[in-house]
Every structure is written in structure tokens, then in C-alpha cells.
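### Sample
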Amino acid sequence: MARPDKAAAVAELTDQFRSSNAAVLTEYRGLTVAQLKELRRSLGENAQYAVVKNTLTKIAANEAGINALDDLFTGPTAVAFVTGDPVESAKGLRDFAKDNPNLIIKGGVLDGKALSADEIKKLADLESREVLLSKLAGAFKGKQTQAAQVFQALPSKFVRTAEALRAKKEEQGGAGTPAPAEAAE
């Protein structure tokens, strides 16, 4: 390749690193073209899976401010650039790797922080963003309901307590103890 082509490839990869929420490096040795096509489909719309040249990708990652991946650029490397939910893409990679042991997850980066292969597998075990947000909303709604019940219970408890004190006072005043007017005589 001519030098301008390499510079253009590095610039494109740098843009992909910068515009992605996450990037996952994999080794694809032994996968067929059909399997790679299936992998791209399994990652969904929010991820782009590209076979890359190690040297150019390493330069692009460094230009994007990602230095933690330098050791992972060995052997045949492909990168999944994730622009959507990283959990969804991590699940797609993990599930594909279970069925196709030739795909090896090397590591990656999420929001500028390096991730090991094990951390990416843990990320894949998380529930999706939408499920976590709905659980959070449910928890907030439950806490609001509890707070409303407490605020409603305080006045009614006060009224019941006051009524019980009034009834007790009437009971004490009317059952054998002289009323204040009788005691003065």
C-alpha cells in the first residue's frame, strides 16, 4: 500500500475509536467468511466488526488516546467498534464464541478504560441498558409509594392517638373521679 492509503486507513480507524462507546479486539483465526458474516449479523446494528492490520490499528488507537491495548495487537486481529449498547454487543460476541471456539476475545476498551477478556465476559452477563433502567424506575416508583404511605399515615396516626387520649380522659373523668367543678366544693 502507498503511504497516503495507510494514512487514510489510520485516520478512519482513529475516527472509529473516537466515535465508539466501546471497542472489542478479537482473534478470528480459523473462522470462515460465512462465520464472519454470521458474527457481523449477531452483533446487531450498533456495532461494526472489521478485520484490521495490527500496526495501523495500534497507531490509530494511540492517536485516539487509547494506549492500553498495545499488547493485544498480535496475530490476526479484528475489532468490533460498538456505537450502541456495549452489553448487547458483548453478549453477541460471547454467544458467538461459545458456538465457534475459534473466535477468541482478547480484550477491549469501554469509555476509555481498558477491559480484559474476562471483564468483557462479565459485561456480557449484565442485563441490557433498557432492562436496568426499567428496574431503576420501578425501584424509584416503589420508594415514592412507600413515602406517600408514610406521609398519609402520620396525620391519621396523630388523629387516632388524639382520639384515644380524649376517650381515655373522658373515661377517667366520668368513671368515679370527680370532675374539676365537684372537687372545688
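The chain has two domains: 3-126, 133-183. This sample (Large ribosomal subunit protein uL10) is used throughout the tutorial notebook.
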